[in-house]
Amino acid sequence: MAREWTDLELLHELEPVVENAVNRHFSMTKDWNPHDYVPWSEGKNYYALGGQDWDIEQSKLSEVARTAMVQNLLTEDNLPSYHREIAMNFTMDAPWGTWVNRWTAEENRHGIALRDYLVVTRNCDPIELETLRMETVNRGFSPGQNQQVSGDLFAKSLFDSVVYVTFQELATRISHRNTGRACNDPVADQLLARISADENLHMIFYRDISAAGFDIAPEQAMYSLHRVLANFQMPGYVVPEFRRKAVIIAVGGVYDPRIHLDDVVMPVLKKWRILERDFTGEAARYQDEIGKIVAELEQTCEKFEVAKQRRLEREAKMAEKRAAKKEFASSAP
């Protein structure tokens, strides 16, 4: 029977791995300044200071780009909850505490830069943005929030946390990068590419801590991996009207089921060699279950493509009707 490790024992056992990962992160990360990615010359006062309040006509971003960028920002805004989660699970003892504080500082920089860009360029409604920020932060966040596993609330362990954030950081990196491309603005593209580079280093940190966990306690790590994949949701799901916005983002090609499977789930599983390793006992059983989850995700991708095509066809027909109606109105005597 495999040994059952406590989180406290795992924290101690993984400490050398964390210390190496922290040192590597400091050697690879590049400091940057949010103000360097904001076109301040485009800024002007809003109504409270004698200027003009926001109007959607002022936005240069498409609906897809604007929705994705605001969703990314609101996700970053929930940083107090994320900090609390990892501080509680990792502790603040060095080197875990060093990482918690550094990661928090870097993530905070992302929110600062995104908000400055959007408000200065008038690419979002700043009043609505603040209303949504207040609501999102008030809702808080927990990886297991509102999720049920075998009738119980999704209880968190150290492995639940590091495995979840591995996938989440990679998904966030890809979402930011694809949003930058969708913006059709070189400044926004550069900003989101810079943020994506940070998120990639964060992902590598968590991915390598998780990899060590699979070697130390394979059954516990595989149990957490199965739970995370079976119940995965992006942290932005607490943002109001998340489902509607997620559809816009998915149909727009920023982040959809195919991207999630091909660019997030499978690369991580391959890096950890989850489906190829010679597991035994319960770990082997979870390996089989994870294979089934991958197959289910593939089916989800296929269903989404069909639904996406139907939606695009409907939108095209509606656009044709609007154009015909406009043409008729303009030609009427």
UniProtKB/TrEMBL annotation:
<feature type="binding site">
    <location>
        <position position="76"/>
    </location>
    <ligand>
        <name>Fe cation 1</name>
    </ligand>
</feature>
<feature type="binding site">
    <location>
        <position position="169"/>
    </location>
    <ligand>
        <name>Fe cation 2</name>
    </ligand>
</feature>
<dbReference type="GO" id="GO:0045300">
    <property type="term" value="F:stearoyl-[ACP] desaturase activity"/>
</dbReference>
<dbReference type="InterPro" id="IPR009078">
    <property type="entry name" value="Ferritin-like_SF"/>
</dbReference>
<feature type="binding site">
    <location>
        <position position="202"/>
    </location>
    <ligand>
        <name>Fe cation 2</name>
    </ligand>
</feature>
<keyword id="KW-0560">Oxidoreductase</keyword>
<feature type="binding site">
    <location>
        <position position="110"/>
    </location>
    <ligand>
        <name>Fe cation 1</name>
    </ligand>
</feature>
<dbReference type="InterPro" id="IPR005067">
    <property type="entry name" value="Fatty_acid_desaturase-2"/>
</dbReference>
<keyword id="KW-0275">Fatty acid biosynthesis</keyword>
<keyword id="KW-0408">Iron</keyword>
<feature type="binding site">
    <location>
        <position position="199"/>
    </location>
    <ligand>
        <name>Fe cation 1</name>
    </ligand>
</feature>
<dbReference type="GO" id="GO:0046872">
    <property type="term" value="F:metal ion binding"/>
</dbReference>
<keyword id="KW-0479">Metal-binding</keyword>
<dbReference type="Pfam" id="PF03405">
    <property type="entry name" value="FA_desaturase_2"/>
</dbReference>
<feature type="binding site">
    <location>
        <position position="107"/>
    </location>
    <ligand>
        <name>Fe cation 1</name>
    </ligand>
</feature>
<protein>
    <submittedName>
        <fullName>Acyl-ACP desaturase</fullName>
    </submittedName>
</protein>
<keyword id="KW-0276">Fatty acid metabolism</keyword>
<keyword id="KW-0443">Lipid metabolism</keyword>
<comment type="subunit">
    <text>Homodimer.</text>
</comment>
<comment type="similarity">
    <text>Belongs to the fatty acid desaturase type 2 family.</text>
</comment>
<dbReference type="InterPro" id="IPR012348">
    <property type="entry name" value="RNR-like"/>
</dbReference>
<feature type="binding site">
    <location>
        <position position="199"/>
    </location>
    <ligand>
        <name>Fe cation 2</name>
    </ligand>
</feature>
<dbReference type="GO" id="GO:0006633">
    <property type="term" value="P:fatty acid biosynthetic process"/>
</dbReference>
<feature type="binding site">
    <location>
        <position position="107"/>
    </location>
    <ligand>
        <name>Fe cation 2</name>
    </ligand>
</feature>
<keyword id="KW-0444">Lipid biosynthesis</keyword>
<dbReference type="GO" id="GO:0005829">
    <property type="term" value="C:cytosol"/>
</dbReference>
